[in-house]
Amino acid sequence: MSALNIKNEEAVRLVKELADLKGESLTTVVIEAVREKLDRERAPVINDARMQYWLDFGKRVRETADPEWLAKDPFEDLYDELGLPK
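Predicted structure:
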């Protein structure tokens, strides 16, 4: 097993403060903090410009599409009246 030796006073102080607040060990606090940070870093990055492009695209389709087509059940052509594939 590898050891972790932290030689930064602020890091040690912060870990001790969090451990005291939570009533947990230093090890538990470090593991939880690193897991939470990894979860945030691994989360997919949302590209706001790309998302806005697709929202605008959907709005344009809705504004220009035939209202009867929009109101149509998308599964109507796929299944018969018994719910079986056509």
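Summary: The chain has four helices and no strands.
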